Amino acid sequence: MKFRVFKWLSLSLGVALSVSYLNAKTPDDELLKRARELFKPIPEKLDRIPYKEVKLTKELVELGKYLYFEPRLSASHLISCNSCHNVMLGGTDNVETSIGHGWQKGPRNAPTVFNAVYHTAQFWDGRAKDLMEQAKGPIQASVEMNNTPERVIATLKSIPKYVEMFKKAFPKEKDPITFDNVAKAIEAFEATLLTPNSRFDKFLKGDTKALNREEKEGLKLFIEKGCASCHSGITLGGHMYAPFGLAQKPSPDLAAGDRGRYEVTKSPADDYVFKVPSLRNIELTYPYFHSGKVWNLEDAIAVMGTLQYGIKLSDDEIKKIASFLKTLTGERPRIEVPQLPPSTDKTPKPITK
Ligand code: HEC
Ligand code: HEC
Q: Ligand 1 centroid vs 79 CA: distance in angstroms?
């Protein structure tokens, strides 16, 4: 009798134990659950622009690609979008602040174009509402491509291949070579510049082995220290504004006299407020911050700890967060470079002064 009770007890205990073992969440499962509440993977491909009803037809994207690489959109015929947002690098130029027309140095660091289609606004201060509006800026900016819409249209109309490509990309329009359509085509091409399948994305999709132990600890710190309260969503940023220096103002050198969104809204509440940058491919997009003053990722993480939270992260914490951030490097888009058509006698000549 005693023996039977013991047997029954041990049997039921065994069943209970194994059931609870099966239900138990491993630390990895817990971390995955928390991560999925905050972040989303980058999709492999888009067939339309997420924020508007524009289908990404082959003809439109192809035209956008030509224009993205087209230096004749600049007055000097030397500078294309790719000069500062180099798709062979991290979709950026890796210099402190960009160099444009006549070797002029612009005021801000160039953010990457990769995955930018997911930002809710463009530029460090969010002054362009989407990629189409954004694309019109640099073509005309005197420190960037220094051109005019009229010269851009005259240039494109003078080259038969472009006349044909615009007709195919905008088949319903009578006079498709317009400045708006230049911007629309570039926007469509940019929507294809996604970097899916980073190791972090594999983790988010359920492969908990895609990150090693140090990287997982970094992810945990990134969440627990509050980084994810600003750097969250599909691009770990790009969807909200925040002060640069929530707890402490940046040094004048780091801020570079840039008041951020204040210049757009003139509201004192927006002083030194910037769009929270995406951290996707952050390993490739140095130097960091709007001023481009910080070259090392670990230094940038330390700056964030001090300025946003007034805390000093330990070297070990910084190292782990940096390891995690490097798992955000995705597969860069494979692009066949376009063979641009030659100019004709009617093409406006370059202005190099
Ligand atoms: C001379 C260098 C230069 C050229 C040429 C240039 N850009 Fe930029 N780009 C920048 C800089 C610098 C910024 C940030 C400016 C700011 O925030 O005020 C920027 C911002 C952007 C952004 C915003 C990204 C974000 O996260 O906010 C996009 C998108 C972009 N550029 C696309 C383009 C396209 C498309 C072209 C070609 C039509 C182009 N750029 C030409 C330097 C350049
Ligand atoms: C209050 C919101 C907020 C919090 C919290 C925050 N950040 Fe940031 N982060 C920003 C803003 C805004 C910028 C851009 C600042 C600038 O250049 O003007 C930025 C910039 C960065 C950059 C540089 C990105 C680039 O492309 O130049 C890194 C790296 C970064 N943050 C990592 C972190 C880490 C790690 C934490 C946690 C320790 C963190 N951030 C916490 C808002 C935040």
A: 12
Is beta strand 99-100 parallel, antiparallel or unpaired with respect to 241-243?
Answer: unpaired
- Residues β-bridged to residue 122: 128
Q: Which of the ligands is closest to the CA of residue 230?
A: 2
Q: Are the beta carbons of 231 and 279 closer than 8 angstroms?
A: yes
Percent of the chain exceeding pLDDT 90 equals 87
Instruction: Indicate if 144 belongs to the active site.
Output: yes
Separation in Å, CA 246 to CA 66, 121, 266, 306? 42, 21, 19, 9
Domains of the chain, earliest start first: 58-190 (1.10.760.10), 197-326 (1.10.760.10)
Mutation to probe ligand 2, out of 308, 312, 319 (largest number of atoms < 8 A from CB) = 308
Q: What is the mean pLDDT of the chain?
A: 93
- The residue from 96, 144, 187, 217 that is catalytic is 144
